[in-house]
Amino acid sequence: MQLLKELCAVHGPSGNEGEIKDFILKYIKKNKSKWSSSPQIIDGDNWQDCLLLKFGKPKTAILTHIDTTGFTVRYQDQLVPIGGPVVRSGYRLKGRDSLGEIECELKVHKNKTLSYDFPRAIDRGTDLTFKTDFLETKSYVQSCYMDNRLGNYAALKVAETLKNGVIAFTTWEEHGGGSVPYVVRHLWEEYNIRQILICDITWVTDGVSHGNGVAISMRDRNIPRRQFIDRVIGLAEESGIDFQLEIEGDGSSDGREVQLSPYPIDWCFIGAPEDNVHSPNEKVHKRDIQSMIDLYAFLMKKL
To answer: What is the pLDDT of residue 83?
Structure first.
């Protein structure tokens, strides 16, 4: 779990993903020689803070967003949320501005406004994220930003054995999206990719529980094409890997932007379920993490 622990600690709220992108890129360059197949690395100014790995002759792509929720410093001691973080007085926040490193306390007021408690004023526009407190037990891993550092971790583990496919590390997902359209355009125009798997984290609910395997989402606020979903489920059954079926009416992911694109690309969300979503204490069962990695590796060979 050391790589996951390191990923969870890297700063990367929506709109400021440069540090986490650089961390992932450094990890890839250091470790790709040990992988079954060495990928083409696609990045640069034309990709902003996104990063693509192209293996062999791809037919399927994995999308995994690298941004997190957080907070932006406004005026005086005011904070504005990035995405939908859980807010509770006393949560510890971290960041840095022109005067140095910051560790402060979140304050939630009766009128639901947010502020920080810190001995000095923090520069306007500074973004803050939850302070990491990574806990590992025999069965569980708990930390802020398992969503979606665990998705990034799973994608990097799948990369170790991947022969054909694309892994795309995307941005802005927690705050409305925006990078997926140009990523999808490249996948379609350059590789004619027609199927995408969304490597993200979902919720523990009344129908999806800890320890019963990765969740395959049949729908959330968006409804992917049933023919493709049935094919994914059929392959999951063939694999013998533990999985659960998820059906929700709320929530969204990078799959929404794939579906709204002008390209006839199928998509399916597959992710381990977590408790305490968007809080400093997101909790995932290790069995579900392993089944997530195993199922992605299997599907990327079979689809």
So the answer is: 97
